[in-house]
Write a structure and sequence with these properties.
It contains 17 helices and 13 strands. By secondary structure, the chain is of the alpha/beta class. The strands form 2 sheets. The protein has a 7-stranded parallel beta sheet with strand order 3-4-2-5-6-1-7, with helices on both faces. It has a 6-stranded parallel beta sheet with strand order 8-13-12-9-11-10, with helices on both faces. Strand 12, helix 14 and strand 13 form a beta-alpha-beta unit. Helix 2 packs parallel to helix 3, helix 3 crosses helix 4 and helix 14 packs across helix 15.
Length: 450
């Protein structure tokens, strides 16, 4: 199969596909659309950027258009997504693909007022795209009834679990009718996802377009070993020298993303951050500025970046190497789309060499190294035989305990030194508390992402 016509799509959907400029289906679309049209459940291993949204949106629309319910419309298809951005992106695709169909759809998520969403629900919908938090909120308020859903899609299931949504998903599943068609998409397939899939998929077909199968031939990859303190200067130098017009910079933490945006601004580079702690308005503004070219650099965390499907991205910077090897392929896949070429830079400091080992084991080759840049640091190169994963920090050597007499004598003779060490201990305690606080903030951030 090498055409959309051969997949069994209706004339109306083929018109929409042609209007979007699609010429031939992607592997995930070829493998997913026919069984979904035939009424089968599907378990798919695929990432954003593989064309998976069309892989489920097109058959959902075709199934929905086969019959028009009499009277008030009710929700017949539910698509569950982990983040606001991805949910909005999916809804945009439904708008494009349903151009010639009498189908009503709506996206709902948290971080914005619910009244406009409630009004749309009251008018009646065929397809609802939602994040778990806002969905359950409106269900509990009596605004949503899932009792007549015919088609259920769980997208980015691995991120759902990473963000702590497993209980929310289970609650939603209990509210759905037993007789329905199901689709689960996940970028990875750990045991937790396999268990989740087994709990609600029936006689499903599995398709696998995993990172190892994704072609990255058009992506020029460059690996740079650098001290952590020099990463910002290296990034600024590359952005200015290569005159980057549309690039994404990936950081590991939200705080790191905010800090880097400020540092880039100080260097005369216009950038915006997108992550879970940003308000929905700020995230929407940042993404809109990036899409229209007003903001050339977008700094993002992995979770918030799900749903960033923007054309024309020329550069991807792994400012912090990801601790999950699969995320590397997911990140660099943001560039070199639609037949274009792209460049993916990886900055590796001495604390990330284990992450690099894991990435190169996954992709099956060594990433080309650029050792000619001004900030090259040989100390970040992985050691021979190094294992993948986080490098264990060396614990400080313990001091031998002194006897009571010596301790008392030291306490009397050197009171200032004793007090100094007490302050150091408290500082470390506060630092630990701060890390704990950040953990709680991130937990709350999960709610913000809904």
């Amino acid at each position: 199969m090498n055409s959309f016509e051969s997949l069994g799509l209706s004339k109306e959907l083929l018109q929409a596909v042609e209007a979007e400029g699609y010429t031939s289906p992607t592997p995930v679309q070829v493998q997913s659309i026919p069984p979904l049209l035939a009424g089968r459940d599907v378990l798919g291993v695929a990432q954003t950027g593989t064309g998976k949204t069309a892989a489920f949106a097109l058959p959902v629309l075709q199934v929905m258009s086969r019959s028009t319910p009499q009277g008030r419309r009710h929700i017949r298809a539910l698509i569950l997504s982990p983040t606001r951005e991805l949910a909005a992106q999916i809804d945009e695709r439904f708008s494009a693909y349903s151009e010639h169909l009498d189908i009503r759809h709506k996206v709902i998520f948290g971080g914005v007022k619910q009244n406009p969403q409630v009004r749309a629900l009251q008018k009646g919908l065929d397809i609802l795209v939602a994040t778990p938090g806002r969905l359950l909120d409106l269900i509990n308020q009596g605004h949503i009834n899932l009792g007549r859903v015919e088609f259920f899609v769980l997208d980015e299931a691995d991120r759902m679990l990473d963000m702590g949504f497993i209980r929310d998903i289970q609650k939603v599943l209990k509210l759905l009718p037993k007789r329905r068609q199901n689709l689960l998409f996940s970028a990875t397939m750990p045991n937790s996802i396999a268990d989740l899939a087994g709990s609600f998929l029936n006689n499903s077909i599995m398709i696998d377009v995993s990172p190892k199968d994704i072609t990255v031939e058009r992506i020029e990859q460059k690996l740079m070993f650098v001290r952590k303190a020099d990463k910002r200067r290296l990034l600024v130098k590359i952005i200015k020298e290569e005159k980057v017009k549309r690039g994404i910079v990936f950081t590991r933490t939200k705080h790191g993303a905010n800090r880097l945006v400020k540092q880039l601004d100080q260097s005369g580079i216009n950038a915006a951050a997108i992550h879970g702690n940003k308000s929905q308005g700020a995230r929407t503004k940042a993404l809109a500025g990036f899409k229209d070219g007003g903001v050339p650099i977008l700094v993002a965390t992995d979770i918030a970046s799900r749903g960033i499907d923007v054309e024309g991205i020329t550069h991807v910077f792994n400012y912090d190497l990801p601790n999950e090897p699969e995320s590397y392929v997911h990140r660099i896949g943001r560039t070199a789309r639609a037949g274009r070429s792209g460049v993916a830079y990886g900055f590796c400091d001495d604390s990330e060499s284990g992450y690099l080992v894991g990435i190169q084991q996954l992709i099956g080759y060594d990433i080309p190294v650029d050792a000619e840049h001004d900030f090259h640091f040989a100390g970040a190169i992985p050691k021979f035989g190094q294992k993948p994963g986080k490098i264990k920090e060396k614990k400080p050597a313990r001091k031998k305990p002194q006897n009571n007499r010596n301790s008392q004598a030291n306490s009397k003779s050197e009171p200032k030194r004793h007090n100094y060490h007490s302050k150091q201990s408290n500082t470390r305690g506060d630092g630990s508390s701060n890390r704990s606080s950040r953990g709680r903030t991130q937990s709350r951030g999960s709610n913000n992402r809904r």
